[in-house]
Amino acid sequence: MTLDTVTLDTVTLAAGASAADSAQPYAELGLRADEYARIREILGRRPTATELAMYAVMWSEHCSYKSSKVHLRQFAATAPDTGVLLVGMGENAGVVDVGEGLAVTFKVESHNHPSYVEPYQGAATGVGGIVRDILTMGARPVAVMDSLRFGPADAPDTARVLPGVVAGVGGYGNCLGLPNIGGEVAFDPSYAGNPLVNALCVGVMPANRIQRSAATGVGNAVVLLGAKTGRDGIGGVSVLASATFDAAGQPAKRPSVQVGDPFTEKIVTECCLELFGRGLVVGIQDLGGAGLTCASTETAAAGRSGMRVALETVPLREASMEPLEVLTSESQERMLAVVTPAALPDVRAVSRRWGVLATKIGEVTDTGRLEITWHGELVVDVPPASLADDGPVYSRPTARPADLNALQADDPANLARPTTGAELRANLLRLVSSPNLCSRRWVTEQYDRYVQGNTVLAMPADAGVLRLSEETGLGIALATDGNGRYARLDPYAGAQLALAEAYRNVATTGARPIAATNCLNFGSPEDPDVMWQFAEATRGLAEGCRALGTPITGGNVSFYNSTGVTAINPTPVVGVLGVFDDVARRNPLDFGLVGEVILLLGETRPEFGGSEWAWALHGHLGGCPPAVDLDAERMLAEVLVAGSRDGMISAAHDLSDGGLAQALVESCLAGGIGARIVLPADLDPFVALFAESTARAIVSVPRSEELRFTEMCAARDYSCARIGVVVGDTLDVQDAFDIRLDELRAAFEGTLPRLFGGVVSSTPAGTPDSRASA
Amino acid sequence: MSARVGVVTFPGSLDDRDAQRAIRLAGGTPVALWHGDADLGDVQAVVLPGGFSYGDYLRCGAIARFSPVMGAVIDAAAGGLPVLGICNGFQVLCESHLLPGALVRNAGLHFVCRDQELVVESSRTVWTSAYDEGARIVVPLKSGEGRYVADARTLDALKAEGRVVFRYAEGNPNGSLRDIAGIANEAGTVVGLMPHPEHAVEDLTGPGDEGLGVFVSVLSSLLAVA
Predict the structure, then answer these.
(1) Chain A residue numbers touching B24 (CB-CB < 8 A)
(2) Chain A contacts of B106, Cβ < 8 Å?
(3) Which of the residues B53, B88, B142 would you substitute to probe the A interface, choosing the one with the greatest number of A C-beta atoms within 10 Å?
């Protein structure tokens, strides 16, 4: 992007005959010839240099969703009407009613490309951005989660990217005072040149205090709150977010990644919450991708109004910045507020008290135009909706990948399986210590999970659980899941499997799932194979959400995740929100009491397509992913929620990657107590231990509750098999093998510290971990 | 009427509401104090909570130490007012020279959040009188700059004078010298510690409630004086 414009390009100049047709660098800014022609048609003249930069960023894939829009529409069109949605898709984040006069807003968003270029700042500003989205709805942010995917765990570049990303997520979230209550870490070669960093934030507000982004009320002041505007992240949206990395791992163009300042975000947050609480704000919008351009056009478009901005009044870090730099800068920790002239003195006073810069930069008009001046010269005069809402929309061609038939035909049934007890034991230890299944403690110990004092469950629990009301125990649960291997084999099923697992995780803790969010990480939309994956995944997700009664409330699409021409595995990440009437009823995953009965819920089938066993033991990806059964998922959730509400369940854990074996290991290690297991007689022990069939969970129940619980399952015709008891200090699989917990713990805990550096001290073997420390 | 315990909010304080909750659960009345006010009102004790005051720029606690409220806290502490500094609050107390030594970057260079076992080495402070000496408690530790350092003479003096209040047990999480997790002034009225007792006040949201004793201690001390 050439920024060294010599003379100021004004609207007058652009409209004048002499300079009107000078060549403009639209292609370098990422615009197509037909897009450029449309801009000229909208304006009736050539755009000024500043306008051109604004259209370039707003019409980029990142801001306009031009390739995904036609597919995303089905989320709203087919959303189940469950009556909980207060704000649906389209705003900064959806809002759901959780009862007792409270509303919850949550959303997951990607920051993949910046995190590859600059892992710490990329991840940190990813957290900062999603937190501002939640704040913008009027909510106090109360927790974050992070869903991370990297190349092979032992690849040299992973050693560069992972520690930086983890430190960035932690550094920003910890300093902001947001507990990190869960997420994922996964490794796969397809992410080697393109890690995925998806951050989720959840916030809470009084249901009657939802804020909107519309700039309304002619004469109202437009106020910029927070950090000064600098040259960081300029053009990030158009150039960086939508550029594919070349084979050498270098971005084709190299603009700067934004730099985060969580302290400023913290005081801006507190300042905004006080402004909301005192009713001083008419409209509010955060400055994220495309900075002031996006915020001003979106608020003006939403208000169906106009806006006049005196751009030179924006506080700058560098006085020499040009208008287009000021408008496209992605400097962090900034908010745009629309306030009445009467409220302005109070807004200034509150901001001063928090040490937050508040500057009036313009006002709302009734012209229907966004007019921006620079020292009195008009440099922008555009209809705001043409940037914010009426960008290009493409129905891109799709094609089922040619290699998919061969991939699906390559069934893992042909792989060598363990048969003896010794082989099963060795397979289990290999899986437990594999990068995708081993303990995440090295990562999660760097995140504050306690701040705000309402964290009931956090990593490694199935879902993060938060208390919202100290008086009544009202609370929420949140889980994120995704599986790129499943989606590679079948994107429709893969998206539903991600949804089903997050839904199941939430229900496993005892919460009733009510809504979903999504972050869709895919390759280039210009590749028909990728576009087919995207179309299948969105269709699967929309239909899945309808079947499970969990509407999509919002989300994010990240395209162009590729290294060279090789796209990542398609990776839809789904977050599900659930509600508790009383969080004291939550189910932890740890086996807690000796003598309790362990029950396996759901049907196990020999399903190994895309499984962790096939991958970790054979490096194999092929066949079909496990069958999706959403009716069964609903029934399982009913069983788990009812069992938890009625106090029948002591511990519960979802079965997913690694199957029953992995779930048993995690529940034993978390509780510090072993288990004696008798595998179902009608199943091959290998299948029983490692298959990844869906709609399954294990529970431990007191003997006094066993009959009541099994009768409840029988009444619902849900498969429930007694497979063992909680006892001792070994995982003892009868007639097969046994492993002492200290050996299991060493295998489970050792992998990430060995790869990414030791920790100063570790909990001695055999010490019971608390629910939150493993 | 229950004792009034002030909790200071600096810009960047994070665990201020949590400290207020702990005081309430222990039976006291929490009072919010603002960093810009030089007046402590009628509070009978003060808690400096965890967080990243002023972004922890320059050095942790270095800027907070010059805030108007700290002028009042330093004066009142000299007069015997009980003061507790938790995590960032401990750093502020060291920067204010109300306690000796300093907190520097963890030996492992990472932020560490874990449930930490501690030994209560002294029950002769107003903030630990409810514990038995030698008691073992588990409270969360969450900090990136929690390694306590001081010169050998100071460390020897702290030990000789019984001013080491908490030590890390079952593994030193951050390289603190002599496993020190918390210390007191000579009078036992000012205590600073890196771990967070205010996050161990309920079974539901903490590793247990073994941190509540810190707040119970000061409230009963205040009751005894009154």
Answers:
(1) none
(2) 760
(3) B142
Residues counted in chain B: 226
Burial class (CB in 10 A: 0-12, 13-18, 19+), B34: middle
- pLDDT, one tens digit per residue, over A49-82 is 999 999 999 999 989 999 999 999 999 888 888 8
Amino acid in position A629:
D
ipTM score of complex:
0.96
Beta strands in A508-551, from DSSP E residues, in sequence order: 512-521
CATH number (domain holding residue B199): 3.40.50.880
| Contact criterion met (CB below 8 Å) for B56 and B20 | no
Q: Give residue B184's domain range.
A: 4-225
* A419-439: pLDDT as tens digits: 999 999 999 999 999 999 999
Q: Do B171 and A170 touch (CB under 8 A)?
A: no
Can you tell me the distance from the alpha carbon of A89 to that of A106, in angstroms, rounded to the nearest whole number?
12
The pLDDT value given to residue A252: 39
Residue A72 is predicted with a pLDDT of: 94
The predicted structure's pLDDT at residue A17 = 62
Q: Which amino acid is residue B59, in one-letter code?
A: R
Interface test with B, best of A267, A446, A451 (most B CBs within 10 A): A451
Report d(CA A163, CA A495) in Å as an integer.
28
Gap from A391 CA to chain B (nearest CA, Å): 40
The residue ranking higher by pLDDT, B57 or B182, is B182
- Which of these, A627, A572, A637, lies nearest to A605 by C-alpha position? A627
Cis ω for the linkage preceding A262 (within 30 of 0): no
Q: Count of CB atoms within 10 A of residue A112's CB?
A: 25
Give the closest residue to B97 by CA, choosing from B126, B57, B70, B128.
B70
Q: How many domains does chain B have?
A: 1
Name the closest residue on chain B to residue A261, using Cα atoms: B55
Catalytic residue status for A62: yes
pLDDT at site A19: 57
